[in-house]
Amino acid sequence: MIPHIHAPNPLVAIGVLASTAATDAVCVMFNAAVLLDGPPLSFGRICEVSVP
What we know:
Layout: H1 10-36
């Protein structure tokens, strides 16, 4: 017996789209915050020398 497949609900599709967009936005903001607050080597500098 073949199961009957219903058409997708537009409200569910909108909810999935909105939650995916929100999750992606939080992920981008978190990654930007971690990158900007990281150690000096996070931007590719090999070493930092300070001469008194």
